[in-house]
Design goal:
The protein is an alpha/beta fold. The protein is 64% helix and 9% strand.
Length: 591
């Protein structure tokens, strides 16, 4: 869902540059002064020629001309440095804002987007702003003023030659009116194609071992090659239109130069124009080639920058989480949290089927609550609604008796520890991963959690202990170790509510038993809710919630459910937790 009424790209571009307005003004002013010295050089050359014609000393005019040239070069160089430095600052500011927007996006937005394309917007698109938001803007102004100034000086020197040169300016203007929109459209298409290529590459690295194990390298290379060729085609289109604009401008200026030379030569031969004025006019026309070329380049860069602004704003305008709105209820920090679902329905999108069909259950106080049932029953979605990764379509999810939508997100999640099913571990050190959810934890706290999560052997095996790098997605440690790291990270937060989604799925029997003890120990003082497919880990749970097709089917203890619910009895028998025949149980359930 997008925010209404997005701002015009030109306005957004200026908003990115405005915080650096003073430096932009200074750098642009210096560049303008450097350009004005170039404009003055033809007139000073005229004075040198006139002095030669009059037989006077040319030392003064030559020294003045030299001073103007050197001074203009120095001033222009300082202005260019200031603008380039400011351009880097503009990119830094845009990237900071974009990173904040990306990290604050709602989970629903990220789930439907392509991470590779988002990375391209943060890197490639922001880089395009560096030039256009600084030197592009100032050069546009400076070149326009210099062009107008040069035209005025031309009109003063000779009106006839001015009309010849004016025809060239009109031609350039018409060409730009045709070419520039095409450059903008081609640039947007090129950036989209680049984002697609990044998305394909991210797709490969996201499942790199699967690609290798499936011998799918050739297929993925072909997919990436297709994306690269499409990006190349779009880039060639940009290059083509840019070349057209540059060539057309160069051709128009040179035709004007030759025409002025021919017409001016005739006027000199007829005695209607001093030769010094013709030389000054030709030099002026020559010097005006730079501001004309710069103006065309600035307009081209502006189209590129506006295309980048549109893509950046598409991310900035995506729905973000509001982490501070709401008022957290006063709760005792050491009291377990309570969770209630009241007739909750949920679907991931308006056109998608319901996942929950009126879910009702309560888990209050310290203890262990297990959510069990077949795949697709909606168990993990319960956690997504408690954490407010998504909001319920209807009904109410309560934490401590308050609707989770009324809690500030930061306060809500501060009470919750969450262990995801795939137990993600981030690139960095083991210590950084443990401290992610509790950055202010002490060394003693970390040591205690390492012991409780049975990570002592891992820490002793790693070359630098807790400060060892564990690679991208924890590639240097086993799946079970990653799961224990995720559990330790959640416990270090000292949550009032602990959510564990299949937390023992990758553990061997010995470690599963140890983590079961950790889970039961935490349940003495914390409200622990577990999604479990291995019923052996939750047979001693205080309450077991049986879910099926998005509904709560039954609630009770293991013994109560074995006796009263056929689905649970079949699940338990299938895992050898009852004495019954699972096929017979299943047949009885169908009957």
């Amino acid at each position: 869902m997008l925010r209404a009424a997005p701002k015009a790209p030109v306005r957004r571009l200026w908003e990115h540059a405005r915080p650096h307005g003073r430096v932009l003004l200074l750098g642009g002013g210096l560049g303008f002064l450097g350009g004005m010295t170039s404009l003055a050089q033809p007139l000073m050359a005229k004075y040198v020629i006139d002095a030669l014609g009059a037989g006077g000393s040319i030392l003064g005019p030559v020294l003045a001309l030299t001073g103007v040239i050197v001074g203009g070069a120095v001033v222009g160089a300082i202005g260019a440095f200031l603008l380039e430095r400011t351009g880097q600052s503009v990119v830094l500011g845009v990237r900071r804002n974009l990173v904040a927007s990306l990290v604050r996006l709602r989970v629903a937005e990220v789930d439907r987007l392509k991470p590779g394309d988002l990375v391209a917007r943060l890197t490639a698109d922001t880089t395009l702003l560096r030039t256009v938001a600084t030197s592009g803007i100032t050069n546009l102004f400076t070149s326009s003023v210099l062009l107008v100034g040069g035209v005025v000086v031309m009109a003063v020197l000779d009106l006839t030659l001015f009309l010849v040169a004016a025809g060239m300016i009109v031609v350039v203007g018409l060409l730009m009116g045709v070419v520039l929109p095409r450059i903008g459209a081609a640039t947007r298409a090129a950036q989209v194609a680049l984002g697609e290529m990044g998305s394909h590459l991210e797709r490969v690295f996201g499942a790199f071992r699967t690609v290798k194990a499936s011998s799918a390298e050739d297929a993925e290379i072909a997919r990436l090659d297709t994306a690269a060729v499409e990006s190349w085609r779009k880039g060639v289109a940009v290059a083509g239109w840019t070349a057209v604009s540059g060539t057309a401008t160069w051709l128009a200026v040179n035709v004007a130069f030759l025409t002025v030379l021919a017409v001016g030569g005739g006027l000199v031969a007829a005695g209607n124009l001093p030769v010094s004025s013709l030389i000054a006019f030709l030099l002026l026309l020559f010097y005006l080639m730079e501001p004309i070329s710069t103006l065309v380049q600035s307009l081209t860069e502006l189209q590129t920058g506006l295309a980048a602004v549109r893509r950046i704003d598409e991310v900035s305008d995506l729905e973000q989480e509001d982490t501070s709105t709401g008022s957290a209820p006063a709760v005792a920090p050491d009291r377990p949290a309570s969770v209630s679902f009241e007739n909750v329905t949920f679907r991931y999108g308006p056109d998608l089927p319901l996942i929950h069909h009126g879910v009702d259950f309560e888990a209050a106080g310290a203890g262990l609550t297990a959510l069990v049932g077949p795949s697709g029953a909606g168990k993990t979605t319960v956690f997504s609604l408690v954490e407010r990764f998504y909001d319920a379509t209807s009904g109410t999810v309560l934490l401590d008796g308050t609707d989770v939508r009324d809690w500030p997100l930061d306060a809500l999640r501060a009470h919750i520890g969450y262990v995801e099913q795939d137990a993600p571990v981030l690139d960095g050190t083991l210590r950084e991963n443990l401290l992610m959810a509790a950055p202010h934890a002490t060394g003693d706290d970390v040591a205690e959690i390492v012991r409780r999560a049975r990570l002592t052997e891992l820490v002793s095996r790693l070359p630098d202990g807790l400060d060892s790098a564990i690679g991208h997605r924890g590639v240097t440690i086993s799946g079970g170790e990653r799961q224990r790291v995720a559990i330790a990270r959640a416990l270090l937060r000292r949550p009032r509510l602990l959510l564990m989604d299949e937390a023992t799925s990758q553990l061997d029997a010995a470690n599963e038993s140890a983590l079961k003890e950790v889970m039961l120990e935490a349940a003495r003082t914390t409200n622990v809710i577990v999604v479990a497919h291995r019923l052996s880990t939750v047979t001693s749970a205080d309450r077991i919630v049986v879910m099926d097709t998005g509904r709560v089917r039954a609630v009770g203890t293991h013994e109560e459910l074995v006796a009263a619910d056929g689905l649970y009895r079949g699940l338990a028998a299938g895992q050898l937790l009852t004495g019954g025949n699972p096929e017979a149980q299943s047949t009885a359930e169908v009957a």
